[in-house]
Amino acid sequence: MSPASLSSWLTLLRAPGLHAASLRTLLQRFGSVDAIDWLPALRREHGPAIDAELRWLEHDAHHFVPLGGDSYPLLLAEVSDAPIGLFVRGDPALLSLPQLAIVGSRNPTAGGRDNATSFAAHLARCGLAITSGLAIGIDAAAHQGALAAEGITVAVCGTGLDIDYPSANSALAATIARRGALVSEFPLGMPALQANFPRRNRIISGLTLGTLVVEAAVRSGSLITARLAAEQGREVFAIPGSIHNPLARGCHQLLRQGAQLVETVDDIFAELRALVGALAPALQAAVEPESPAAAAPVLDKAYEILLDALGFEPAGVDTLVERTGFAADEVASMLLILELDGELESRPGGRYVRRVLKAAK
Asked: How many angstroms separate the CA atoms of 118 and 87, rounded?
């Protein structure tokens, strides 16, 4: 792209409310972006900011991908309100890989975070890119799971790509920029405004074959992403949870509305197999079982009884004594050993809950 055309595209980003459908109308009228007659006035208004973006784009890892360009992802281009251009830190070619979005609460339970990490890792090993929003909580766990599996992850940001947000994930963002891609439709310097995030969410859903919601309250941005995915004709998946967990209620609401219930990655691939196969034949083998992991150590019968009595809801020592008939000091000792073995974790108030680390398999 010539410097003049790049400048025109960066100017066009400043046009309020402009998106894919309205841009196509403009191009039918003017023939090309460079010929739009009101661009010079807008360029004069935003000149310093556009010049700063041109300098930012001189970096080898910084890119601008215009609608209709070779690197603009085809799935996103199908969305009527798709952005007219994307800033990218990293490899823009990754935006066209088959992707699954994993989203959820910013304050997940430990089990929810584990599920996000393990599902992302397994799906990434199968060849899907994992897309999320770089928020703390489930988003970060999904990105980290994909990276830990040596897979690809894409982070869609609600700020300009020169803004360090959230600062708690700055190291994660830098890693994603090296090994995946950070994406934003927002000009450089755009802060984290509340109105930005629903717009960001439509890109997350628009880039992907489907959206998996791990944990979400009833009033949650993750449900916005899921709704947008459904409106865009993409699949919506949800992991069910405890009726006592308020962060499971958003997932249960999605399930009542027709989302696909997910217990394993096979549930996801059962819905995506045809789409994935059409986009990337190499992923046809994704549903094949992995090599068996080393056998887990066999628990003593008493420990099995205690874990069965604990179930998957938090419970205290007194409750477990009542359920098992074991002495209180015996229960306390076994709980400590099981916690050290990673079978369960302690919660406030002296309660314990089982860990579910193999949900994705």
From this structure: 29
> What are the φ/ψ torsions at residue 129 (nearest 5 degrees)?
-75, 140
Question: For 227, how many CA atoms within 13 A lie in the half-sphere containing its CB?
Answer: 11
Distance CA 353, CA 361 (A): 20
* Beta-carbon contacts of residue 328 (< 8 Å; ≥ 6 apart): 317, 318, 321
Q: Please give the torsion angle defined by the CA atoms of residues 251, 100, 220 and 202, in that order, rounded to the nearest 10 degrees.
A: -140
pTM score, whole prediction: 0.80
Q: Is 129 helix (H, G, I), strand (E, B) or coil?
A: strand
What are 45's two structure tokens? Answer: 């208004």
Structure tokens at 289: 């079982």
* CA pair distance 344, 307, nearest whole angstrom: 9
* pLDDT tens track, the chain, 361 positions: 888 899 999 999 999 888 888 998 998 899 989 999 899 999 999 999 999 999 999 999 999 999 999 999 999 999 989 999 999 999 999 999 999 999 999 999 888 999 999 999 999 988 899 999 999 999 999 999 999 999 999 999 999 999 999 999 999 999 999 999 999 999 999 999 999 999 999 999 999 999 999 999 988 899 999 999 999 999 999 999 888 889 999 999 999 999 999 998 889 988 887 666 555 554 444 444 343 333 344 567 888 888 888 877 788 999 999 999 998 888 888 888 888 777 888 888 888 888 765 444 4
Strand partners of residue 260: 237
Q: What is the helix (H) or strand (E) element at residue 337, kind and residue range?
A: helix 328-340
Largest CA distance in the chain: 83
First to last CA, the chain: 45
Phi, psi of 87 (to 5 degrees): -85, 140
**Residues 237 and 293 sit within 8 Å (Cβ to Cβ):** no
Are 211 and 103 in contact by the 8 Å Cβ rule? The answer is yes
Q: Is the preceding omega at residue 348 within 30 degrees of 0, hence cis?
A: no
